Amino acid sequence: KQHYIKRMEKNRKPILAHAWINGQGIQLWENIFGTMNLWNATHRQWLRKMNAIWKTYGKMFISDDWKPLIPLENKQVLASQWQVDGNVITNFVDTLGTETTVRIEVAKSENQKYFDLWNGEELQPFEENGKNWVSVKVKDFGCLLQTADVNEKLTGLVQIQKKETSAPQPVFDKYEQELSLKEPLKFVYKKTENSSFQPELLEVKGGEHTFTCKHIWREGRCYPNRDAKHNHDLVITFENGAQHITHTHQENVPSFSVMPRVVTNRQFAEFLKSSGYQARFPENFLKHWNGKTCPDSLLNQPVVYVSLEDVRAFAEWAGMRLPSEWEWQLAAETLNDKFAFNEVFEWNESERFDGYNRFVTLRGGCSRWTTPSSWWYLPGAPYGEIAGGPQKYDSHVKYFLMHPGMDRASTIGFRCVK
């Protein structure tokens, strides 16, 4: 049978109607590559009612004895019918969304019982012009069962549907509410001093700045600007054959000092020896070392295979912190060649959480890494060509946080600020 889905559609009635009238299931897809499209209370109730019927009488809907779109007196209501072993089930869809009463001819038999499976009621037949009829109330959806087999599963289903029908809809639906993505989460660093760790630092003069950051639109989308109303209100432009998301951010940035290069394996090894740090989740931690100590050949290379919590622990030990992404961009804009980036993607304090998904936006790129596939996921690459490699300083890439062991990668490192 046909399968039909519109993943970003807010009105689920046409999708549910298509499934209901064709006797098929439906794919629920609320978390669409990290973008939430949540079902509202009314649509969820419709789905619960359908699901209860599917679970109880699902085998009837795969019968070959299917009469699609049977004619009714009321043309605003669509109906399809299935028959198995003397049981007849009819699904209704009201196209106008107004409550209406539908008359339908039914079998004439003393043993037959008739149930409104949508609202949870037994119906009484009536005779007219020598035919047997029942009347079914239909608003949006409906379902009629004709059966001589009144068993425990049927009476249980009727009770479930009756209770569901009488359940009031919430005035304020908490389920649909996402947490705002406008501002990053605030990680509070422990205030420490470390006189033994004194890396080279470059001074960055603060002040009031307006930043612009642009990247290719991806299915995972991104966070909104501060003046947006909702999480999905993004500034999208079409350039060079591709959609782009543009972030505009104004901030008064205090002056700070920044490491001119990302943290090396040598510096991270010093942190481990001095602090005794052990990763809470050890999967893939410093995987490139292939052991507990770093090979001499890697000591001056960027440390990688470190998670966000690993690098925050290093920053606290060093008496420093991770930069915000706007501090990172300001350093790249004003320090020019003194600020070396693109050795690896870089962690920064941009963690966000909408109640369902956690992510950061990585800055820079990894010059030694490219990918011939999924080229639409990386900023700065020509659309439709090999992606990866060096990235522009005024761009970022959204990186979902799944689990520290999965978040660690050979292409991601970090630097600190003070």
Outline the structure in words.
- With 418 residues, the protein is of the alpha+beta class.
- The protein has helices at 13-22, 41-57, 152-166, 265-275, 308-317, 325-335, 404-407; strands at residues 31-32, 35-36, 66-67, 77-84, 87-94, 100-105, 113-116, 121-123, 126-128, 131-138, 141-147, 202-204, 207-216, 236-239, 242-253, 256-258, 345-346, 352-353, 358-363, 366-371, 387-389, 396-400, 412-413.
- The strands form eight sheets. Strands 3-4-5-11-7-8 form a six-stranded antiparallel β-sheet.
- Strand 9 (126-128) and strand 10 (131-138) form a beta hairpin.
- Helix 2 (41-57) packs antiparallel against helix 3.
With helices defined by DSSP (H or I, 4 residues minimum), what is the helix count?
A: 7
Q: Give unreliable regions as ranges.
A: none
What is the overall silhouette? elongated
Number of β-strand runs: 23
Query: Roughly how many Å apart are the termini?
Result: 61 Å
Strand content: 25-35%
| Strand line-up in the sheet with most strands | 3-4-5-11-7-8
Order of helices and strands: HEEHEEEEEEEEEHEEEEEHHHEEEEEEHE
Main sheet characteristics = 6 strands, antiparallel
Write the layout of secondary structure elements.
Elements: H1 13-22, E1 31-32, E2 35-36, H2 41-57, E3 66-67, E4 77-84, E5 87-94, E6 100-105, E7 113-116, E8 121-123, E9 126-128, E10 131-138, E11 141-147, H3 152-166, E12 202-204, E13 207-216, E14 236-239, E15 242-253, E16 256-258, H4 265-275, H5 308-317, H6 325-335, E17 345-346, E18 352-353, E19 358-363, E20 366-371, E21 387-389, E22 396-400, H7 404-407, E23 412-413
